[in-house]
């Protein structure tokens, strides 16, 4: 089984969807660690309920980003994580983690990238007035939501939609799309290993 580390900063509904997909047998992986940059985040409770190990840290207690990423790297190596899954992790990944894991870091973003990168993608879509937005799963590089796109799904914005209803529609898609895409990546890598 491939060992994944999930990174989250918030509610952790995508983290829970990944854990549920594993329990149901549709995702052939194991969550080795939850990495969380907000010690009060709901995601941590969800990990505790499932007895998944957590590394919670406060970035502001470290002198630099490289310092806290070195701590994360140590924990990732200790638990032998092979994939980093960013599920609502609201920070850019620096070279301390990118260099050793490039090609094995995946993010989910609530828009059809390259439209609406960065924070509040749902609010950006609503205020721009587009009729279609969606969800993107992509590889992570040093940019802000700029890495190679792996999969996308569109959501139509209805006249009556507000931030809450649109977020609910987007998250319903995320919870299906993310575990499925991770499973496809893991399977593709397994096939490569057999070939080589
Ligand atoms: C998700 O909708 C994810 O797409 C978004 O944060 C939410 C986290 O929800 N990510 C970004 O905006 C990244 N720029 P969750 O904590 O319930 O999984």
From TrEMBL:
The keyword Metal-binding does not apply. One of its GO terms (biological process) is 'de novo' IMP biosynthetic process. Its EC number is 2.1.2.2. N(1)-(5-phospho-beta-D-ribosyl)glycinamide binds at residues 12-14. GO terms for molecular function: phosphoribosylglycinamide formyltransferase activity. Pathway: Purine metabolism; IMP biosynthesis via de novo pathway; N(2)-formyl-N(1)-(5-phospho-D-ribosyl)glycinamide from N(1)-(5-phospho-D-ribosyl)glycinamide (10-formyl THF route): step 1/1. The record marks 145 as: Raises pKa of active site His. The keyword Transferase applies. GO terms for cellular component: cytosol. The active site is at residue 109. It catalyses: N(1)-(5-phospho-beta-D-ribosyl)glycinamide + (6R)-10-formyltetrahydrofolate = N(2)-formyl-N(1)-(5-phospho-beta-D-ribosyl)glycinamide + (6S)-5,6,7,8-tetrahydrofolate + H(+). (6R)-10-formyltetrahydrofolate binds at residues 65, 90-93, 107. Residues 3-182 form the Formyl transferase N-terminal domain. Keywords: Purine biosynthesis, Transferase. Belongs to the GART family. Catalyzes the transfer of a formyl group from 10-formyltetrahydrofolate to 5-phospho-ribosyl-glycinamide (GAR), producing 5-phospho-ribosyl-N-formylglycinamide (FGAR) and tetrahydrofolate. This is Phosphoribosylglycinamide formyltransferase. It comes from Sediminibacillus halophilus. The lineage of its organism: Bacteria, Bacillati, Bacillota, Bacilli, Bacillales. The gene is purN.
């Amino acid at each position: 089984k491939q060992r994944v580390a999930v990174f989250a900063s918030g509610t952790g509904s995508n983290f829970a969807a990944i854990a549920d997909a594993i329990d149901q047998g549709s995702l052939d992986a194991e969550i080795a660690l939850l990495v969380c940059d907000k010690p009060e985040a709901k995601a941590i409770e969800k990990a505790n309920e499932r007895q998944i190990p957590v590394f919670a840290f406060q970035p502001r207690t470290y002198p630099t980003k490289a310092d806290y990423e070195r701590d994360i790297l140590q924990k990732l190596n200790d638990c032998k994580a092979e994939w980093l899954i960013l599920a609502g992790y609201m920070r850019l990944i620096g070279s301390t983690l990118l260099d050793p894991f490039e090609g094995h870091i995946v993010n989910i973003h609530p828009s059809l990238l390259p439209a609406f990168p960065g924070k509040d993608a749902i609010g950006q879509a609503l205020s721009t007035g587009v009729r279609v937005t969606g969800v993107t799963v992509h590889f992570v590089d040093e940019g802000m939501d700029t890495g190679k796109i792996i999969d996308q799904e569109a959501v139509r914005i209805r006249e009556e939609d507000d931030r809450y209803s649109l977020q609910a529609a987007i998250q319903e898609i995320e919870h299906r799309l993310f575990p499925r895409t991770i499973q496809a990546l893991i399977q593709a890598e397994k096939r490569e290993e057999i070939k080589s």
